[in-house]
Design brief:
Structural class: alpha/beta
Mean pLDDT: 95
Distance between the termini: 21 Å
CATH architecture: Alpha-Beta Barrel
Shape: globular
Low-confidence stretches: none
Number of strands: 8
Largest sheet: 8 strands, parallel
Radius of gyration: 18 Å
Order of helices and strands: EHEHEHEHEHEHHEHEH
Number of domains: 1
Helix content: 25-40%
């Protein structure tokens, strides 16, 4: 029997009601689910405050909740009103997530690859966010994206048991990224993972083992840490789009377990 806990993002590429997706995830044998913290809209409307109730009904555990990253660059704004307004929005999300039983949220430090920010406003913003996380006892994991320097700045400058790292394997193996080096460097602060594969050019969200990610290296490092779930953020590729949702979920889980069972050193 596979000893590793597995999870998947609640949106895996099929337009279905939230509860139906959760039921299929459970039936496929996953242990954990990752959520996106926004209400579900057309064609199937659901308030986000109901998400965790549905997970509990199907006896699925919550790995982490990804906060929205629209306007996340406001956290680095020179305009204090704009910056503080977004800080307050993030703090509100933290409290909502905590009230729904969330232990860990994932946040982007910045959005986009062409921005250059002064570090001081971002430090001020994230210091306030982490202080709120400490006050309500929730963990905030900063994810590696195209410009990891800002996330790394936060990881270096803000020391707190409530601040850590979310590792996205696909982001790390897109052209020009670290190819596992940042995972090795920041594994001591690892709180969550988003596992998927790509062709080395774009963030494809392929099933693990399909593309160019060095899974021997990534899984070898991850096995050194006591993460609660090897969780995926995957969507169907072209030839997989004809598969039924249950078939895709089963294929993704089988492929993940294949890379987990390899003798990674």
């Amino acid at each position: 029997m596979n000893k590793y806990k597995t999870g998947i993002f609640h949106w895996f590429g099929y337009i279905l009601p939230f509860e139906e997706r959760i039921k299929l995830i459970k039936q496929a044998g996953y242990d954990y689910v990752m959520l996106w913290w926004e209400d579900e809209y057309y064609p199937y409307i659901l308030n986000r405050m109901e998400f965790n109730h549905i997970l509990g009904y199907y006896d699925l555990k919550l790995d982490n909740v990804h906060l929205p990253f629209e306007n996340i660059n406001h956290l680095w704004s020179e305009n204090s009103t704009e910056r503080n307004n977004h800080v307050e929005l993030v703090k509100r999300w933290l409290n909502e997530c905590k009230n729904c039983g969330t232990e860990t949220v994932v946040i982007h430090a910045v959005q986009g690859a062409d921005n250059i920010f002064d570090y001081s406003p971002g430090y001020d913003s994230f210091k306030k966010i982490i202080r709120e996380a400490e006050n309500i006892n929730i963990k905030v994991a900063v994810e590696n994206t195209q410009t990891f320097q800002y996330a790394e700045f936060i990881l270096k400058e803000i020391e707190s048991p409530n601040a850590g790292f979310c590792y996205d394997s696909s982001h790390d193996f897109v052209n020009g990224q670290s190819r596992g080096a940042i995972l090795e460097k920041w594994k001591h602060k690892l709180m969550a993972v988003h596992l998927s594969d790509n062709d080395g050019l774009y963030d494809r969200h392929w099933i693990p083992g399909k593309g160019h990610v060095d899974w021997n290296k990534v899984i070898g490092i991850l096995k050194q840490d006591n993460i609660k779930s090897f969780s995926m953020e995957t969507y169907p590729y072209e030839e997989e789009k004809q598969m039924q949702p249950a078939e895709f979920l089963e294929k993704a889980k089988n492929c993940l377990e294949t890379v987990l069972e390899k003798d990674c050193v």
